[in-house]
Amino acid sequence: MRLSTRNLWAFAAAALLAACGGETSDSGTGTGSASPTRGTLLQNPPQLVSVVPAASLLLELNTAANLQLLTLGGTPLCDINVYHIEYATVGGTNEATTASGALMVPGGANSRCLGAHPIVLYAHGTTTDRAFNIADLSNPENAEGLLMAAFFASQGYIVVAPNFAGYDTSTLSYHPFLNADQQSKDMIDALAAARSALRTSIGLLTSDSGQLFITGYSQGGHVALATQRAMQAAGMTVTAAAPMSGPYAMAAFVDAVFEGQVDTGAPVLTTLLLTSYQNSYGNIYAQTTDVFEPQYAAGIGSLLPSTTPRSELYAQGKLPQNALFSATPPAPSFAAMTPATTPADLAPVFALGFGAGNLITNAYRLDYLLDAQSNPDGGWPTTTTGVAAVAPAQPLRQDSKVNDLRNWTPTAPVLLCGGDDDPTVFWLNTQLLQGYWASQASATAGISVLDLEAASTAGDPYASLKTQFSAAKDLIAVAAIAQGATDGGAMAVANAYHSTLVPPFCLTAVKSFFDAR
């Protein structure tokens, strides 16, 4: 669930950024052995990492390679001051820890870049890079930081984007991946720290207007929605939210994967998930060989996130690249889902998840599938209650239910954006959440859903965006065919779909949605 820079409109970021070394102090860290209060800004004022002039950003975007991004995001209006913030938060068992993130503050001569501005609180997608820092716009792998700068900070929004506990300078030894409670606390703490920073000298010309928008992509879509839920429960102000391509219906989504619809990147995502839930709830395994094949079991509980690139982990035999499950059914009755063959357009993707050198043991998969039969999800594969199983007995299914977001209804406007053919985070997540909200008497009328694959209707505000998205897919397919693809470019499109195709188009819709508030 990672947004990648590969084949995305390239930025020569190093040429754009004037790095600035900011002096910092530890005035917010407290004294003695007591842990700082959650949300405490640990460097006050925070470190100024870089300054991105609007003119330089425009010059870089106004090239053949980047022109489409300029068209979608708009002409940069504001200079951007990028700060690295560090703050106190908690881990998956509520243990005290630290985390870091980016605070992007618009400035410059344009009158729209000064004064009070709304905040966009952004949750990033999955990364295996332990050193990931979204404030480092010179990193060519930091596509999301650059997109936040181009779409929001350069347009006058203040951007707060945490790296999450377990990354960058965080003292946590693991990452609480898709732990809704912890990750929403992390987001809220990052926001508190950023607002503290804006009350220092860095906020003399640009301040918080009080409007708060929440968004995020992939893993970050789940985090964004969990954060809106937590803030609503706490009586905090949320102006609007727009999660993108997130695994909102966690219990149903994990069921679908174990029932043969193996998503792209499944070995990495499953390892992150099981590590997170083992650290947070302690119930996934007594020993790693209870879940993982022996060749991977040693050390896998601390493997991700890692400072070793993912490609090297594959080369070293630490993880399989594709094979999550064995090609041998765990029992004859499950042969039809080893792999799943429907929907047909994603069947080739599902098939990649099965084979020799698989990550998860057949015994563990069988235990999971038997529980899914006995205690089925209420929304998938058939709809009954629309929510997660009432009493799952298998630990991973129990934990997935805890982090399933089909249990509340928003009071602030929400836009859900994604694509129906997503092979990484299946569209069923958005469909099930939309169906759940539609069934609730307390649901508001402020819920919108954008499927980039859906046919346009009369008066469709996203008709042009859908047309451009379709054209972008066609370009990838044509290029693959020219390079010898015999499947009409289908696999090339699938490989690009979640990481590079969907994000800029959804962000365009999200910005329009926020601008209208």
How would you characterize the overall build of this protein?
It is a single chain. With 517 residues, this protein is α/β, with parallel strands linked by helices. The chain folds into 2 domains: 13-243, Rossmann fold (3-Layer(aba) Sandwich); 255-402, no CATH class. The protein is 35% helix and 14% strand. The protein has helices spanning 13-16, 54-61, 67-73, 143-151, 180-198, 219-233, 250-258, 266-281, 294-297, 310-315, 347-352, 362-374, 395-402, 428-439, 463-482, 490-515; strands spanning 18-19, 47-52, 79-90, 96-107, 115-123, 158-162, 206-217, 240-244, 414-418, 447-451. The chain has a 10-stranded mixed sheet with strand order 1-2-3-4-6-5-7-8-9-10, sandwiched between helices. Helix 5 packs across helix 6, helix 7 (250-258) runs antiparallel to helix 13 and helix 15 packs antiparallel against helix 16 (490-515). Mean pLDDT is 92; it is low at 4-32.
